[in-house]
């Protein structure tokens, strides 16, 4: 009986130690915090994190934030080192999609990393940034 309890204790301890070491492992990735100033309190801001292959197609990670004190902030966790871009839009009517006028112009404000402000959708080469092994904070304007 003592052997069984000792074995169970040792197994549980090894799992706990392994779990603790995994939570701080740099291979898990870093945190990426993105803040955007918003002039209206209506709706939410939807953020997408992309790599070059998924840019403006399907985000690797997508998050949504309420607007608090004129800002929307999200934190992407476990972002592995690499090159990424963030694209966001202010979903004023909370329909979870960006709305466009009949002529193709967006009805809702949008933004991209590196504060790309161009007519038309942002381009990868202008919006990309590198993620290393340290937490990163971005502020994007719309």
**CATH H-tier superfamily:** Immunoglobulins
Please outline the major beta sheet. 5 strands, antiparallel
N- to C-terminal distance: 66 Å
Contiguous uncertain segments of 5+ residues: 1-27
Q: N-to-C SSE series?
A: HEEEEEEHEE
Helix content, binned percent: 10-25%
CATH architecture: Sandwich
Mass-distribution shape: globular
Number of strands: 8
CATH class descriptor? Mainly Beta
- Secondary-structure class: alpha+beta
* Strand fraction: 35-45%
Q: Note the total helix count.
A: 2
CATH topology: Immunoglobulin-like
Mean pLDDT: 82
Report what the structure shows:
This protein has helices at residues 2-23, 124-127; strands at residues 30-37, 44-50, 61-66, 71-79, 82-91, 110-112, 129-131, 136-139. With 142 residues, it is an alpha+beta fold. The protein has a single domain (27-139), classed as Immunoglobulin-like (Sandwich), CATH 2.60.40.10. Strands 2, 3, 5, 6 and 7 form a five-stranded antiparallel sheet that branches. A three-stranded mixed sheet has the order 4-1-8, with no helix packed on it.
């Amino acid at each position: 009986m003592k052997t069984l309890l000792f074995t169970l204790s040792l197994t549980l301890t090894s799992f706990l130690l392994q779990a603790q070491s995994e939570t701080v492992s740099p291979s898990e990735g870093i945190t990426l915090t993105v803040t955007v100033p918003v002039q209206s309190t209506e709706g939410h801001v939807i953020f997408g994190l992309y790599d070059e292959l998924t840019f403006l197609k399907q985000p690797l990670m997508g998050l949504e934030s309420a607007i608090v004190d004129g800002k929307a902030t999200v934190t992407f966790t476990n972002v592995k080192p690499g090159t990424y871009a963030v694209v966001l839009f202010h979903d004023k009517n909370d329909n979870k999609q960006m709305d466009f006028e009949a002529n193709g112009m967006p009805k809702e404000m949008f933004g991209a990393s590196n504060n790309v402000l161009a007519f038309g959708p942002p381009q990868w080469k202008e919006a990309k940034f590198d993620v290393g092994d340290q937490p990163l904070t971005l502020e994007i304007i719309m």
